[in-house]
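Bit of a strange request maybe. I'm writing a small parser for structure token strings and I need a real example to test against, not something I typed by hand. Could someone generate the tokens for this chain?
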Amino acid sequence: MSTKLVEIAMKARKDKKAIFTSLAYIITPEFLKETWKMMNRKGAGGVDGETVKDSKKILKREYRTYGKG
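Reply from user aminoacidic:
Good idea to test on real output. This should exercise your parser:
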């Protein structure tokens, strides 16, 4: 798990009243690749109906657009 995410989780546990207005700076192409590796691909689909196959296509497209690939 990324260091930034761990720090945010620790702050949230420590300060229950903390308000996080934006976590967008954490969502980098590298972060997406890291979390993709951690994802349970055998689990049920999300409430939005998105499948693992859909997510993989989106991840590749976004990485090409915003990442180094």
